[in-house]
């Protein structure tokens, strides 16, 4: 086990966790079957002729889906209230909160430039060591991404590393070597530890780096809490009734990453897009990545008894859990997969619109990650939709070939004022 990995594993040992879319375009697939994905809604906030912001959102949700409460042990009253709210509406409230936090910081400070380190004897070097360790973990687990971060300013790069490490550790709780020992109580402790670090009381050096990051950048705690909620969901749920449920799960475990990262990566000063629309694009990239992950890992997940596919859509395609466990590529499966891939691509397309609005130095790694991840969908197709026995992967050659393409795309500056992403206050400083 690599050094950093064992460090993370030790830190994650349960014993050591301290008392551990408004156009709505309804569409039906042209196929004769009644496979209906439902509404297509787009993420971006457009200004109408009257200059009023109109919310367009993007997530295909089954028209037959019944939003349900996925909150831990809800009371009957909470359950009733939650049932009236779709996953997308819930997630949108987090986006609005994060965008409001950025605006609030803008009002209280002239801009979002990085605050100086608090100079206490020994603190700077400890902090610097803590960030370096985060960089090492990042370099070890996500080499290409790590290289991309090297293009960012040192402050932003360090902060992204700190967020990466926290996300990785959180994911390891349910996916790592100690996963079988992880209980909801351990997740509660991880959550308390998160609250502590947001209040300036980190538990270890990785937490210290994140604690410093959240002081320096307008990062809200909610996406972090929500990621823990996603892990909690993973512990107790192995089926998703419909896309609404799956969307919430994808938000929890991956959309949150987008919301955590944008305050650090920053929005280009000359961007005309609304803060909210950029956050929605970030959210879309996280959802797209996770949907892709799910489609790639169908066989692997089934072998663990897990099916992260909308049950109602499977049924509409004439498929059952048994078909997934049997792992046979049939016409029904190919049909089902084509539509799932189409939806994932819609989220990638929505995400694309926001990448250009990011700070110049942050665009390259984001374009790279978008292009690389999206190619997994192409590989699933190239494998004849056999994601039961074959793991779609992007070859090194294709990965390398994507980097200059990502770089060229990253040179495109934010769209001028005529863009559909016009922001409410064009002179806003970021
Ligand atoms: C620049 C950039 C890409 C920044 C993100 C950095 C960051 C903090 C990454 C954390 C990733 C992480 C460890 C998440 C934990 C949960 C998890 C495992 C999610 C899955 C990722 C893939 O992980 P994994 O390494 O297991 O994959 P492989 O199996 O090895 O293929 C996810 C599928 C989701 C990751 C989600 C993102 C990277 C969100 C990306 C969105 C942005 C960076 C916002 C971009 C902004 C705009 C405006 C589009």
UniProtKB/TrEMBL annotation:
SUPFAM superfamilies per the UniProt record, alphabetical: Terpenoid synthases
Enzyme Commission no: 2.5.1.32
GO function terms (MF aspect): 15-cis-phytoene synthase activity; geranylgeranyl diphosphate synthase activity; squalene synthase [NAD(P)H] activity
Pfam family, one: SQS_PSY
Enzyme class: transferase
Keyword Transferase: yes
Entry superkingdom: Eukaryota
Keywords noted in UniProt: Carotenoid biosynthesis, Isoprene biosynthesis, Transferase
Acetylation listed as a keyword: no
Family: Belongs to the phytoene/squalene synthase family.
Entries under PANTHER family matching the protein: BIFUNCTIONAL LYCOPENE CYCLASE/PHYTOENE SYNTHASE
Protein name: 15-cis-phytoene synthase
Organism per entry: Rhodamnia argentea
Primary gene name: LOC115734732
